[in-house]
Amino acid sequence: MTAVKIVLSIAYILLGAVSIASLLVYYMHMFQLNSYMADEQRRFMKTNKGALLGRRMGYVLSFMLLFIAAFDIVPVCMLCFSALFFFMTAWGNRPWARVAKRPLAVTGRVRRMFVTSGIITVLIVSAAAVISAFLTGDVLKTAVISGLAICVTGCIIQYILLAANVINHPREQAINNGFINEAKKIMEESPNLKVIGITGSFGKTSTKYFLTKLLSGTYNVLMTPGNFNTVLGVTITVREHLKSTHEIFVCEMGARRVGEIKGVCDIVKPDIGIITSIGAQHLETFGSMENIISTKLELADAIPDSGCVYINADNEVLSKQKINKKVKTYGLENKSADFVPANVYATEKGSEFDLTFPDGETVHFTTPLLGKHNVLNLAGCIEVAYDLKVPKQQLVSQARKLEAVPHRLQLINSPRGLIIDDAYNSNPDGARAALETLMQFDGVHILVTPGMVELGEKQYELNKELGEEAAACCDYIVLVGKKQTEPIQEGVRSKGFPEERLFVVADLNEGLSKVDNIKTDGKGKIILLENDLPDNY
User: Fold this and answer.
1) Residue 332: how many CB atoms within 10 A of its CB?
2) In this predicted model, what pLDDT tens digit does every residue of 523-537 receive, in sequence order?
3) Under CATH, which number does the domain 410-530 receive?
4) What is the fold of 190-400?
5) Angle of the 289-302 helix axis to the 260-268 helix axis, nearest 10
6) I need a labelling partner for 63 at 20 to 30 A (CA). Which of 171, 173, 438, 536 fits?
7) What is the pLDDT of residues 458-474, one digit of tens each?
């Protein structure tokens, strides 16, 4: 009989361990999405405390039962119910049931954090079991006390993960420094490589793609892939992709905190800089506009005196900054800029414009890119490429071959209508440009959006303005997330937008179902997907 109790107790504890592991995987996923930043993880936990309590409710209920069992009140029955709650917790948090937009990447760092978190958890539960067994000598009592330790550990597993991050920090820093130093050495061994750094609150990714395309007809070009725009992302790009045959490295530089662009510049040593914009993007993590400005200008500071900084003269904040380097400008509205597209003609099929070069020749460009803001970004890229001796006719040819960057005003023909996919990282200026692009198409204009995030104390105000602007130009508005979109709802309703054409839904799938049910009397649907929040929102 004692042997049966021991086996069942071990099975019970293992089930509790599985439930903790499932919850740990979830928190690890969120921590990775929060860039392993402890302050952002704590913000996430505070913002979502209600939903996170639901994920741990099985432990709360189990703790209450086990507390009663500790007084020898029907311990077997209580352990059975506790086991059921452990199973429900494990099943409810099972990783394979979540369809993630960006799944957990099981990197070396993640594995090490799992190990450290596991060791801490095992020590807590083992200590409780050993002490109970020593003091009571009773198998059931030991199982109950171990269950209580599992409940407590499960309720604080998110903090155990943060503790593991602190414990592992010196080793992770040493590993990262080794990779960074290796990347620096590779860059030093490429003295003829010309590096173009690109940063900005918005527009930098599109600019990276456009410039790479313009240059690739003349040079062998490497660009940072995807969103590899951090210190570690650039380090990976250099170590794994940079070859001796590359002539130009187009390096996107992103930042959410002061000093992060400087960190990238210290690795790649840019010869040319492009600053596309300065705005309220990531204001929540930067803390102030002053910090955003100083961080974006870290690129300009890194450019040598022999180099050049290209800036978007239409951006009011950027154009006011004093840059003590050679500066060239481009713009649409600011006619005093060095490169100014003229006779801009933007339609649903693309854009056309004229550019007058420094030698006085005016050249006509056509491109399939949508929106005037893309014309602006392209003009800056043409300016840089021309200064790098790319022939004008080569520029004309390459501009004609450009394609929309994925999820940035990307046109998708679908059975439900024409989709304008602008789902990546929305910001106030980008959202405004997307609405302008939407209006270029004939049909029923439908906006689907969860709103904008990481805008700090201005987030409510800017989302309300988005609602006001959407109400002025959209036929239907579908808002994803009831609480998240409250300021947009207020802005939409303040403009007298018809209530029957405003839908608030729980998720994107429900939103698209609403879009499918909209009757248009034969008119085509033009659907703007503006922003798509990551899994940690």
Assistant:
1) 19
2) 899 999 998 876 666
3) 3.90.190.20
4) UDP-N-acetylmuramoyl-L-alanine:D-glutamate ligase (3.40.1190)
5) 10
6) 536
7) 889 999 999 999 999 99
